[in-house]
Amino acid sequence: MVFSVLAESFNVHxxxxxxxxxxxFCQTLMSMPEDTKFLVVEMGMRGLGExxxxxxxxxxxxxxxxxxxxxxxGRLGSLENIAKAKCEIVKYLNPDGIxxxxxxxxxxxxxxxxxxxxFYGKNYQILETTENSIKFIYDGNEYNLAVNxxxxxxxxxxxxxxxxxxxxxxxxxxxxxxxxxxxxxRGRVINLNNNTKxxxxxxxxxxxxxxxxINSVISxxxxxxxxxxxxxxxxxxxYEDKLHKGIGEFLSNKHISQLVxxxxxxxxxxxxxxxxxxxxxxxxxxxxxxxxxxxxxSEKRIILLKASRxxxxxxxxxxxxxxxxxx
Length: 327
Fold this sequence. Notes:
Shape: globular
CATH superfamily of the largest domain: Mur-like, catalytic domain
CATH topology of the largest domain: UDP-N-acetylmuramoyl-L-alanine:D-glutamate ligase
Distance between the termini: 44 Å
Order of helices and strands: HEHEHEHHEHEEEEHHEEHEHEHEHEH
């Protein structure tokens, strides 16, 4: 999103895909054209000290922290440690630079930054959501995204703030956001030939992103026959049982027709749902899930596929796309 906004006015270079570790950072830097005005680098981490290393060699002028969630909690042990790890980005931030961060108490508590700060994420209003777009107001201006999901709106506000700091007009910021498309399988819509839609959101998953994806599908298709196909979430460590069960509890008051779980840990999601109106099927692998979905197909269904990357949910999507409409 930041790249899309800045590219409306400047030559911009960015990290590709998830090339966000020390190797990916070097690849990004070494491939940067000489006339680059803005370099947009994603800084990833799975433990303490990793973002600090990237910050040391990047020497950023602007730093964005989008959230503190449960991704990698198995390695870091607590949300507090995740916040500490993400806040390492300010260690080598330009003294005249600016921190742009989601309005989160953990970020405020652990970011040792005395310079200028912009906290965002609460003063916006969603006007309209469709299958492929969302319209919202932020700071008195209306914007459109060619993707849906409230989480995308919140993330886009960081890009809006960067655009304003770079001196880009609101009209160009609007245009840049409208051109944004997500990387990889992050909410791609696949239309099947029986009026069924697959929402392919299996690039990765953690409890926060899974809840956000579920909420997005429900708000986008409020009167539809929704089937959730949820798989194991990785890197949750000692918290994995509790966090999988938490997804089931979260689903208990949601308006969905069916839940299909895939994997040993995802089974805990199914077992924790307390809603007799949700039809539940427990599968141990992708083949079982694919066979079940194909043998229990119906028209005009919305199928969300969401799991950690290791579950290879593209296998399910590929199998469902082979199904032909009965004459």
